[in-house]
Amino acid sequence: MSGLSLESVSLAYGGQTVLERIDLDIPEGQLVSILGASGSGKSSLLRLVAGLQVPDGGSLRWRGAALEGPSPERGIVFQDYALFPWLNMRDNVSLAITQARPSTPRREARREAEEHLARVGLAATVERYPFELSGGMQQRGAIARAFALGSPLLLLDEPFGALDPVNRARLQDLLAEVWRQARPVKTVLFVTHDVDEALYLGDRVIILGSSPGRVIADLDVSFARPRERQALLNDEAFQALRRRINDALAADILRGLQRVESGEGVR
């Protein structure tokens, strides 16, 4: 099925190449985890797909059409939640709905917002403001808002990176459940630094190498869903795939250090 396609995509900042000739084909309905060391271009890749930046070379297409600027078709969730502090949670979500579908009556948008908040366990927070909620609750609100947009393509940029381990695990489970139950099924690009998180959530793991960012591995994650966390962590195939990914990341970091020592990475 036609989905997201990147062909020879390159990006540079101030003469420094961040992404170099990225080629990817992601069918609709996949949840793809993106791993890589700091500076490998993970967030830049998401910003290109979101239409927040323009590549210096190559092309990006969604469902066969060229990507041009931001669109409600591509929802994005950042690590810092990005909720509007002057709006309560219901209005944060209903605003996304009316932006995506301007003809939606206000009462209907508010009703839909309450349904999305209830789906992520925030039914009791509809009148509360973001600053009145914990970080985990705010991030659940951001996820509810992203799904409320109805975007067929979701871009998640380290959405759980600032959370404690308990809330992080809860939100991983929540995301997996909401994604699995969504109809139509959404395509998700999920940026993370956490190997276990990437494997637990993803149908596929893409590893970006650094200096410059390029695809150094593209691995299928074929574990059946729904996934049970402890059983998966104890699975020999999971452990082997984790070792393979860690080895690839470590080798990339070593190559980066060698480039710096040789003067190649100094500009």
Automatic annotation (TrEMBL):
Alphabetized UniProt keyword annotations? ATP-binding, Nucleotide-binding, Transport
Q: Name one Pfam family in it.
A: ABC_tran
Specify the superkingdom.
Answer: Bacteria
ABC transporter domain mapped to chain residues:
4-235
MF GO annotations: ATP binding; ATP hydrolysis activity
InterPro entries per the record?
A: AAA+_ATPase, ABC_transporter-like_ATP-bd, ABC_transporter_ATP-bind, P-loop_NTPase
Among SUPFAM superfamilies, the record links this protein to: P-loop containing nucleoside triphosphate hydrolases
Q: Which family does it belong to?
A: Belongs to the ABC transporter superfamily.
What's the protein here called? Nitrate import ATP-binding protein NrtD
Q: Which organism is this protein's natural source? A: Zestomonas carbonaria
Q: Its encoding gene is what?
A: nrtD_3
